[in-house]
Design goal:
single chain; alpha+beta; two-stranded antiparallel sheet; 10 strands; rod-shaped
Length: 341
């Protein structure tokens, strides 16, 4: 697993602490300081300690635990490494007893067993430290990978949902324009122009995580105007805007499905009961609602992908930051959405 800058910083802090601690111990204990003693203690023994640490870190843990799952073999190798490196240090100390067997500047009683036990303890410290740092870094790296994978999965799902939405809208709009063309309506050219404007927004301007709420409102307005063209007797829509529409942002194409649903399943030709679309925005909350009279003759049970799609998108991009309330009464259909923006 590739390690990043955080791992390098953690290693640097660990070894800096070890060096500072060793220097403090030498100074405070008043041990006899000779060039040979310090060369062996900091040079030779330092290299042995570093080797012990990184043999465990680079080879034993990744190979025996993570790849091969040989836990019993790792335990054996763990203690064998400590024993061998402690033995090497003890042999060196035996070769230079006058320098290495010193306590407060004086030669100590020659006790090889105690010296070996002390170096085994030091070896165990570096082996355990190596394990702690390795597993800590790997855990954070694994968490980072999981977060990245989850983010990529969410992004792929959002793109898939959006790809569903665009053809769904285009399919319905082309059906409407086909009806106008079939009737040889003079509104056909205007409908095609409106569709072109809408598709420009969907293809080029909505490919960002968020867009200005004002642009989304313009998009809804164009959609409403496009839908109105196909109704000979007129379509009655009341769009009310309040609050800070120009200063807020929203995930693109989030509101269209609610408006589209009103046109597809509702009554839009009744001047006494127009479709009511209300948008209120402030610095924290967007309140959006659509109320339409139900078309009792519309038996389309499919409902398309629209509302199911938009609810899933809400769950992905506004988790725990939205409330969607849908009321399907005998005569009216109401969608009320509040988003913490």
């Amino acid at each position: 697993m590739k390690e990043g800058k955080g791992a390098l910083i953690l290693h640097s802090i660990f070894w800096a602490t070890i060096v500072i601690g060793a220097v403090v111990i030498v100074i405070t204990t008043g041990s006899g300081i000779t060039l040979k003693r310090e060369f062996i203690s900091f040079g030779v023994f330092g290299i042995l300690n570093i080797s012990l640490f990184y043999i465990n870190y680079i080879f034993l843990i990744p190979e025996l635990i993570k790849r091969r799952k040989k836990y019993w073999l790792y335990v054996f190798a763990f203690f064998l490494m400590i024993a061998v490196f402690a033995l090497i240090k003890t042999v060196i100390a035996v070769l230079y007893p006058a320098d290495m067997m010193m306590v407060r500047g004086k030669a100590a009683e020659y006790n090889v067993n105690e010296y070996y036990a002390g170096k085994a303890f030091v070896g165990g410290f570096f082996m355990i430290s190596s394990c702690i740092i390795k597993f800590t870094i790997d855990w954070f790296a694994s968490e980072r990978i999981q977060r990245n994978l989850e983010s990529e999965r969410r992004e792929m799902e959002l793109q898939f949902l959006k790809s569903q939405l665009n053809p769904h809208f285009l399919f319905n709009s082309l059906n409407n324009i086909y009806s106008l063309a079939y009737q040889k309506s003079d509104k056909t050219a205007d409908a095609i122009m409106k569709l072109s404007e809408i598709m420009r927004y969907m293809i080029y301007e909505s490919n960002t995580p968020t867009v200005a709420l004002s642009k989304e409102v313009d998009y809804l307005t164009s959609y409403i105007e496009l839908q109105k063209i196909r109704f000979k007797d007129g379509a009655y829509i009341e769009l009310t805007l309040n609050g800070e529409i120009d200063n807020q942002k929203i995930v693109p194409l989030m509101l269209i499905s609610f408006v589209e649903n009103a046109f597809k399943h509702g009554v839009v030709t009744d001047p006494e009961e127009p479709v009511k679309i209300n948008i209120i925005a402030n610095q924290k909350i967007l309140h959006f609602s659509v109320v339409n009279k139900k078309n009792q003759q519309n038996k389309d049970a499919q409902g398309g992908v629209g509302l199911t799609n938009v609810e899933r998108r809400l769950q992905l991009v506004y988790p725990d930051r939205y409330k969607l309330n849908v009321v399907n009464s005998a005569t009216h259909y109401t969608c009320e959405l509040m988003i913490d923006i």
